[in-house]
Amino acid sequence: MIGITFALPSESSDLIRRLREIERHDDLIFGKIGNHDVAIAHTGVGASNCNARLEMLVHKAKPRLVISSGFAGGVSEELCVGDLILAENFSDPTRLSRAEQLLQDRPARRVKLFTATSIIESIAERNEIARASGAAAVDMETGAIAAVCTAHGLPLLSLRVISDTPSKPFPAPISILFDVETQRTDLRKLFGYIITGPTRIIRLLHFFRQTRQARAHLTEAIVALVREL
């Protein structure tokens, strides 16, 4: 059994459609990729829910490996939207090397990943993370996931895809796009934002298109890995 984590269902939707023999138990989604059993857990955005969700994954699914996946933001122009990244600072070295070999035709770049306590949107914040930590990308969950895996002696592989960069940032303020406290988008607030500026809908549609393509790229990589790891 391989456990796979995503923050939100919007990140895992393509992969779930690829599963066979799907079953849902205790907020976990079980299925098969090829002949391999997988269990998918949604942690929510940020570290606050990760411990409980990871403990459930560990005890209910009993995985031999956990893959921390989903979107990440680039903090420099070193990465482009759609790039696959393997976090060298969070991943088990043996699985990391194997993943690099299996994904060499895609490819996936080995980088340092920084786990932030809030969603990073400004260029100044991105630059500061890159300068202070030496990271090339940022997320909000992998650090907490890694801590749980370490406590249980479980190997972790961190594989993510870049959804936004300094030159291709979020198309609207984060407060409009997503509320971390409620873990959802306030559609009334989003609609109100859109109707006050005619070009805003174009930026949003372009962003949704690029994240859809990035998600598809990530899904193909996960399927390739699960079949061989």
Question: Could you give a short description of this structure?
Answer:
The chain has helices at 9-18, 50-61, 93-102, 123-133, 142-151, 174-177, 187-195, 200-228, and strands spanning 2-6, 20-25, 28-33, 36-42, 65-68, 71-74, 84-87, 108-111, 113-115, 137-139, 156-164. By secondary structure, it is an alpha/beta fold.
Report on this model:
The chain has 229 residues and is α/β, with parallel strands linked by helices. It has one domain: Rossmann fold (3-Layer(aba) Sandwich), CATH 3.40.50. The chain is built from 8 helices and 11 strands. Helix 1 packs across helix 8 and helix 2 packs across helix 5.
Jot down its keywords.
single chain, 229 residues, alpha/beta, Rossmann fold, 8 helices, globular
SS-based structural class?
Answer: alpha/beta
Overall CATH architecture: 3-Layer(aba) Sandwich
What's the end-to-end separation, in Å? 11 Å
What's the helix-strand series? Answer: EHEEEHEEEHEEHEHEHHH
* Number of discrete domains: 1
The CATH topology assignment is: Rossmann fold
Count up the helices.
8
